[in-house]
Design brief:
Layout lengths: L20 H21 L6 H8 L3 H8 L2 H13 L11 H16 L2 H13 L8 H20 L6 H17 L7 H16 L5
Length: 202
């Protein structure tokens, strides 16, 4: 009499991966500590022991996750300065650029954002290349310009938009050349469109 082989035991359920939890809380606490210390003392005075003490974690945990202070500051800069969503489509190139410029201005003109930007620029001497947060802003500009081209609008090139809108905005912030307000971003947008598409300011 042939008997059927015993059925294999059922596979154990896949473990549920936890999202968030303690790791996310530690990361958020460390990022907040870095931001507070930069606002109080500047990036040059921030140390991992000080960050760990402010965040209420062991310095070893910070070193294990971020490696060194430069790695930690780069991660904070990427999180705090890089846009986390696509640029909204308002229907026209000018209003798209105005929204992009104002959102960028608001993100990079806080004291801690200025300090993070200056630190990032300083790191380019040893780690050349475009910083991730600036690359993300540039990609947003590329998206805006492509949408305008698809709508049939006269459109500057990405290089022109970077040179005449993005670069002056970051230059003023990094070198602390006085406050940057919404009127400044409107002027930069209108100058870009006037000189490279012939569109007069409205």
């Amino acid at each position: 009499m042939n008997s059927q082989p015993p059925a294999p035991p059922p596979h154990p359920a896949e473990p549920v991966r936890r999202t968030g939890g303690r790791s996310a809380r530690v990361c958020a606490a460390v990022h907040q500590a870095v931001t507070e210390l930069i606002a109080e003392n500047g990036a040059e005075q921030v140390t991992i022991p000080a960050v760990a003490a402010r965040a209420g974690v062991n310095p070893t945990s910070v070193y294990r996750r971020w490696g060194d202070l430069n790695g930690l500051l780069a991660d904070v800069a990427s999180t705090r300065l890089a846009p986390d969503d696509p640029p909204p489509d308002t229907g026209t190139l000018r209003t798209d650029l105005l929204q992009w410029a104002e959102r960028t201005r608001a993100a990079v003109t806080t004291p801690e954002a200025r300090a993070l930007l200056r630190h990032s620029i300083g790191q380019l001497a040893t780690c050349p290349g475009t910083t991730p947060r600036m690359a993300a802003r540039e990609q947003q500009l590329a998206t805006i310009l492509t949408r305008a081209e698809d709508r049939g609008e006269p459109t500057p090139t990405l290089t022109q938009a970077v040179d005449h809108l993005m670069a002056p905005l970051y230059f003023r912030v990094i070198l602390n050349l006085g406050p940057v307000d919404p009127a400044d971003t409107r002027r930069l947008v209108d100058d870009l469109l006037h000189h490279h598409t012939g569109r007069c300011p409205t």
